[in-house]
Structure formats: C-alpha cells, structure tokens
Amino acid sequence: MRVVVAEDxxxxxxxxxxxxxxxxxxxAAEANHPGVGVLVxxxxxxxxxxxxxxxxxxxxxxxxxxxxxxxxxTVVDALRRIADGExxxxxxxxxxxxGRRRRVDPLAGLTExxxxxxxxxxxxxxxxxxxxxxxxxxxxxxxHVTQIFxxxxxxxxxxxxxxxxxxxxxxxx
Length: 173
Known about the structure:
Blueprint: E1 2-6, H1 10-22, E2 26-31, E3 38-42, H2 47-56, E4 61-65, H3 72-83, E5 87-89, H4 91-98, H5 112-122, H6 127-134, H7 138-151, H8 162-172
Parallel strand pairs: 1-2, 3-4, 4-5
C-alpha cells in the first residue's frame, strides 16, 4: 500500500510517516502547505464525508464523484474555483442532501429564488456564474446572497466565512 501524508505540523507529520513506515506502509510523499487546495474524488455518494470535509476545512476544498473525471472541464473548473478559495460540492451530493429533512428548517424563511441561489452557491458557483445560470445580473445575485445571510442570521465577522456557513446550513436541511 502507498500513501501520501498531508499534515501542516512538521513534527506530527514526521511522526505519522515514521509510524506508517514501521508498519510496512510505503509513504510516497509528504505535504506541508496549509494554503493548498484539496479536491477529493470519491466513488461514494456519501454526504456525510462531504459535510465533514467542509466543516473541518471550509475553504479551498472540494468533493466530486470520480465519474466527473470523464468530464474533464468539470474537474478543471472545480480546481480553478478551489484555487480561488471556494468550496466545491458535487451536484449529486447536493441533490442527495436536499432529499433529507430536518425538524427545524433554518431555510424556511427563504424565498424560492433565494433557495435556488443558495443551492447554486452550495455547488460552489460564483456570483457571476449564478447570474449567468439564472439570467439575472450579478448585482441581483449579490442582493439575494445578502438576504440569505440576513435570514440565516449570519453576521459578518473576520473569523467566519458566511458563504460557507450558509452552505452548511443548506446542506444540513
């Protein structure tokens, strides 16, 4: 078995590498760059995996199904968006999460259009891409996103990424 160890704390990484090698695992490479983006390609439609990924690392990450590799433009687009600091979730995962229900729906106060915008945000689309998809101006999308933040009670703070928090609220419902 070959693995790649990614850990930003050098001593922890070195310890993990040594333990793996002692257990007979081949460590193919080590990585240490906290600003690097990560795109997980998975064969599993597991919304819990995607949720855990973005909860732990809300920026510069993505979760796509392996079947997307056959549409290389989709993968390249995801990589570009991740490089720009966005989060990308496979549309199939988003659809799967939409099928689940919660007792208290934090999105109940959103209009149908705001839910539509939030669903596209959850797919990792930029405001410009959403505007193009919905045939509206980018300013209109910005207004919808602002209303979403207000209705979900997501105040602007330097320690939180409201767009990611809105997506998490969306994915949990």
